[in-house]
Amino acid sequence: MTEERRRSTPTPEQLRIWRGFIETGETLRARLAAQLQSESSLSTGDYQVLLALSEAEGHTARSSELAALIGWERSRLSHHLGRMEKRGLVRRVPCADGVHGVDVVLADAGAEAFRAANIPHLRAIRELFVDALSPEQLANVDDITAALRTHLGLEGDDHPADLSRG
Amino acid sequence: MTEERRRSTPTPEQLRIWRGFIETGETLRARLAAQLQSESSLSTGDYQVLLALSEAEGHTARSSELAALIGWERSRLSHHLGRMEKRGLVRRVPCADGVHGVDVVLADAGAEAFRAANIPHLRAIRELFVDALSPEQLANVDDITAALRTHLGLEGDDHPADLSRG
Lengths: 166, 166
What we know:
2 copies of one chain form a homodimer. The first copy, chain A, is mainly alpha-helical. Chain A has one domain (about 1-165): Winged helix-like DNA-binding domain superfamily/Winged helix DNA-binding domain (Arc Repressor Mutant, subunit A), CATH 1.10.10. Helices cover about 65% and strands about 10% of the residues of chain A. Chain A has helices at about 5-10, 10-40, 45-55, 65-70, 75-85, 110-130, 135-150, 160; strands spanning about 60, 90-95, 100-105. In chain A, strands 1-3-2 form a 3-stranded antiparallel sheet. In chain A, helix 3 crosses helix 6. The longest helix of chain A has 29 residues, at about 10-40. The first copy, chain A, is globular and about 55 Å long. At the A-B interface, helix 2, helix 6, helix 7 and helix 8 of A face helix 2, helix 6, helix 7 and helix 8 of B.
């Protein structure tokens, strides 16, 4: 191994920690997605859209704002909204300003599905994540996340805070 | 909010930390996947398969073992291997024991693609993750991951350790 490589790539220990971090996050997401699907027939994507609309003023958001809020490409969101619309969870209407764009509106069935799914989903987050960690460990997660977000240039991206209500 | 709900669901602060944790992991994975794809034309899935085969004895693994090692459903892996085989990255042959199952073999083009991709990918992990954190923060990541893995019943699952070489 050259000196250059030694300096620029992680040590085996750093790589072990990286893989543990990323794989544990994936396992958590997969467990929560399976729980959500089995208890409420919603995918994680459905839940994110319904959550964002539930919190939006008038239960309505521009599709471009929705894409930014949940961090998806607009084409991916558009396909996903098409499927949700067929299931009666959302409606898409021309923007109120009449110029361009689409407003996405939470439909009654979507509001009902979100209400039914939300408490079990939050309970699962508590059981699988919060209950695993001491208050100090939880504070350390916050510290680590903040350091990573600053490093990745995500500071000022208030997306997690936007979704922070209980 | 009822007393029952208050006890069983996360506080807004806990939920904010959860969302920061999970979304930062997703952002890191997306950034690394984009870097890998643009520099080497490999997907993260391709890389995981090539990494596992590179480390396997004789550069060969049973498809069932490979699925367990990468943590994928066997059907997902089978579809993925089909696409990799068409690109000449791997070969699938009947198991050496002649009874059942398939051995997956690293092809020359796959070994070459992995060699070309690996150092830039490791460098990106270093730049995006390791360099963001102090040694103490990195140790805290390890501590948090261990607590979560124990809580999720993943202890003894040595998958991250298996992939820990630099």
